[in-house]
Amino acid sequence: MRLTGTGHASMRIDTGAGSILCDPWVNPAYFASWFPFPDNSQLDWETLGDVDYLYVSHLHRDHFDAAHLKRFISKKATVLLPEYPTSELEDELRDLGFTSFLRTKSEEVVELDGGLKVMIQALTSPTDGPIGDSSLWVEYDGVRLLNQNDARPTDLGVFAELGHVHAHLLQFSGAIWYPMVYELPSAAKTAFGKQKRDRQMDRTIRYIDDLKASWVFPIAGPPCFLDDELWQFNDIHGDEGNIFPDQQVFLDHYNGLGYDNGVILLPGSVSEIGTESVHTTHPVPDVREFFDRKEEHLRAYQERARPVIEAAKASWRHPEIDVLAGMKRRIEPLLDESIYLAKGVGGPVRFDLVGYDGESVESILVDFPGKEVRPYADEKVRYRFRTERALVEHLLHIEEVDWVNSLFLSCRFSAARIGQYNEFVYAFFKCLSEERLQYAEGWYDEHERSTDAEDITIGDWVVQRRCPHLKADLTRFGIVEDNQLTCQLHGWRFDLASGRCLTSVGHSIRAHRADEAPATVPVEAEAEPAG
């Protein structure tokens, strides 16, 4: 099996029975904030795009690059389609000209022509990507590969049961706006960032230890930030709280823990993978030297990208749009239909929109309890977001249904909040369409009604086996220290004595000391996630 690195989470897999291109991303994403690093725009995409199969893991724009897919990827390719609850991914790919789709069933192996086998595991929580994320398992001639990209399955056992995996490709770096955008003292922001950085590396190591693949390839990050306004987010400033470490930083950390099976893929790197060996060639003479000169490469990349960024910025302003009226039209019908998300948010959310002059501000309130959008009137709010009016104009102009995976991932905003992280705020702004909202409401309804009766023992505590957040198996991801449980899958923490979630609103855990009888009434909880 030949594996060609094509940047970020993208790769081309070549076998004797066909080729698969995964998640090709080249053009900037999220309001021209994210760029692939290293730069992959100079690859021979005409050749790379001439493939038998296309796999797009999910609709995050650093995985689904519509312009690139339309221009460079063969429309003769058969799309390996994850089993998602909505048809959005298929619809968007059809709009780009793809006509051949293999609709997989989650966790079911499909044998393609020539003995090539694939399996896709689809994750379908409202918090998994934009309504879905997935991983691709591939087997040919006894060699097995798992492209986990940035999916976060609760258990890799389904892949391990299919036989020993030889190549495991997975995310290790940050892909979120937290804590950089929060209005916090710099010391606090650094401390929270360091916690986040440590958690994401710990999670990666846990996945690696679970699967025990022969070779590990860190992928799906980091992005780089080439706009002057966002330059500080690149991990080149010696900031221990930066959540975007690069592949070499991770590999050094990984090696420091005693592992020696990590392999870096640059755009253009080629790994020949067998059952007993891997041989990798790179487009540069020395990979470490390349990363040592990271800032130099980023500065040159920035100059190449400057016209693209400026052109993007020029397209965002739509002064003809009445933002208040537009938000009322888009959001109020969804507020009327929302039960679980509106209740979960539990208070008003304020948007401070900075005008073209950089000074004037229009404040708009999304009143979740009152089910209306109106001008702000000096009331206390649960969350406050501050961003440029032009960005919201653009979202309304293009009728964007997912403000999380556009505005928020752009990092072109600042935020403040009262109390703990509230996942329902972000879940709602990810679901600004009838189809998405109804799916999310149904998902939360189903999970609120379900019970988790199985208990496990961790140290001195008996706890429910499944994490209240996204049902991670706490026998694998749970760690108890100082009477607090941490689920390492997403970094959520729980006070075991009270059951209260310390990380986000709306999730309690069932727990009692092993030498005591369980309480008869569960305690209501609150909670902040990994992002």
From TrEMBL:
<dbReference type="InterPro" id="IPR036922">
    <property type="entry name" value="Rieske_2Fe-2S_sf"/>
</dbReference>
<dbReference type="InterPro" id="IPR017941">
    <property type="entry name" value="Rieske_2Fe-2S"/>
</dbReference>
<keyword id="KW-0408">Iron</keyword>
<keyword id="KW-0479">Metal-binding</keyword>
<dbReference type="InterPro" id="IPR036866">
    <property type="entry name" value="RibonucZ/Hydroxyglut_hydro"/>
</dbReference>
<feature type="domain" description="Rieske">
    <location>
        <begin position="462"/>
        <end position="523"/>
    </location>
</feature>
<keyword id="KW-0001">2Fe-2S</keyword>
<protein>
    <submittedName>
        <fullName>Rieske 2Fe-2S iron-sulfur protein</fullName>
    </submittedName>
</protein>
<keyword id="KW-0411">Iron-sulfur</keyword>
<dbReference type="Pfam" id="PF00355">
    <property type="entry name" value="Rieske"/>
</dbReference>
<dbReference type="Pfam" id="PF25451">
    <property type="entry name" value="SCP2_Rv3818"/>
</dbReference>
<dbReference type="InterPro" id="IPR057330">
    <property type="entry name" value="SCP2_Rv3818"/>
</dbReference>
